[in-house]
Amino acid sequence: MHDRPVARIAALNVPVPADLPQQVERALAEDIGSGDLTAALVPADRLSRAIVITRERAVICGRPYVEAIFAALDARVHLAWDVEEGAEAPADQRLFTAQGPARALLTGERTALNFLQLLSATATAAHRLAALIEDTSCRLLDTRKTLPGLRTAQKYAVRVGGGRNHRIGLFDGILIKENHIQAAGSIGAAVAAARSPGQLPIEVEVEVESLAELRQAIDARADIALLDDFTLEQMREAVAVNRGAGRLLKLEASGGISADNIRAIADTGVDYVSVGAITKHVRAVDLSMRFEPA
Fold it and tell me: pLDDT tens track of the chain, all 294 residues?
């Protein structure tokens, strides 16, 4: 087992989500309910020590959630971390040691590991893709394809992993998609409505499915065009059309993006690639908590 401190993959300045206490409270409530029947079998005054390790290489994320969980259960629990938030840890790395009342350690184990393994998986997925384009001008974005109730937590993990956040929800950004265009009548009409008096002064993004629609978005003075399922050649043409128009929109590529093609997409000249899989298709990192002999 590796027990040496692991360096971060990058300097972090990622704020913890404001709703972390509520997320932790809900997670503990759904697991504990009226009480932990099994942990109650252990004497109330029993103290224990446990270590948590990762069984696979991962970017570790979720430390604030783990700390909040054990603090909520018993303030006497002490956590000593070997790995900083945002560090890429090798397999069998010890992540932290927990000491304190055995009942609290047992009750909090599953909830703490659930957060840690999910957010580490999200951060790892984001890091793997972001690293492939880090020397280009293109940046990785997430989407709203998150696990229900855990959006801010997963978007936090994306940033820890080196990605960037797209809009958090429907309330903080305008993305005019196909159905909005159909309902509004046209791209121009939808963008005009977004620019009308009384609307929030925020960026307006339009999803386009062809170069003709891209030109409409440019003429409508949108801020960003989302290139939906464009081929590499179409992306290069979109970049050329955008530059030729004189007023540059930001271009975001979306659809079918993976580690196999993200670099080629970035090299077309688009500004962003958005990937729902980093939050939607995550596979939890394999973690383990081991109690040490009394």
Answer: 655 545 455 546 899 999 999 999 999 999 999 999 999 999 999 999 999 999 999 999 999 999 999 999 999 999 999 999 999 999 999 999 999 999 999 999 999 999 999 999 999 999 999 999 999 999 999 999 999 999 999 999 999 999 999 999 999 999 999 999 999 999 999 999 999 888 778 899 999 999 999 999 999 999 999 999 999 999 999 999 999 988 789 999 999 999 999 999 999 999 999 999 999 999 999 999 999 876
Which backbone phi and psi does 105 adopt, to 5 degrees?
A: -65, -40
pTM over 0.70, yes/no: yes
**Could you say which of 67, 228, 267, 286 is catalytic?**
228
Choose the catalytic residue: 177, 195, 215, 263.
177
Known catalytic membership, residue 292: no
Catalytic residue among 85, 207, 213, 271: 207
Query: What are the distances in angstroms from CA 111 to CA 17, 32, 87, 104, 263?
Result: 18, 10, 21, 11, 37
What CA–CA distance (Å, rounded) separates 250 from 143? 17
Question: Which ranges of 54-186 would DSSP assign to H, the alpha helix?
Answer: 63-73, 102-132, 151-160, 178-184
Residue 207 among the catalytic residues: yes
Q: What residues form DSSP beta bridges with 121?
A: none
Contact at 8 Å (CB) between 46 and 125? no
Does 142 participate in catalysis according to the annotation? no
Tokens of 270: 């688009």
Catalytic residue from among 8, 49, 110, 263: 110
